[in-house]
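Example 3.2
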Amino acid sequence: MITIFSKEEEKYFLTFVLKYDNDFETILGEMKKGAKINYEEVEKYMKDVEEKYVILFSNDYPEYFRNFSQPPFALFYEGNLELFNNNGATFENPLDSTKDFYLAVSDDGGNEVDWCIAVTHEEDLLPVVNKFLNDLEEDLDFKKYANKNELNLS
């Protein structure tokens, strides 16, 4: 896929996505109406973005999600995003059943299990990652992508 947006344009698009709560139908409707985002809105929304993200129009956006009938316009993630190109699964968020989270895991037979968790709302990422890792860390050795102190919200 050819990158449609520069990094600066990605920020404008992410602001649009955040403003409309990453809701596919709402975003599509606002785009059709010609809704605009100004620089002040970009500054307001982007100052709070702390997690890694990828947007639908990025080269890094995994094919797994492009195949959805309504793919998320943006994903916030922790781990190896490329794993979604080989496998992926959608699960109900254990902390909020109205939202999904996406998981890709790869065990290459080595000591560590590679993984990625993605969500559509940034505030959901750390609680879901913490729950996932804490629930399974005794059984599996997950590759470390972040300092555990950064993930724990307690």
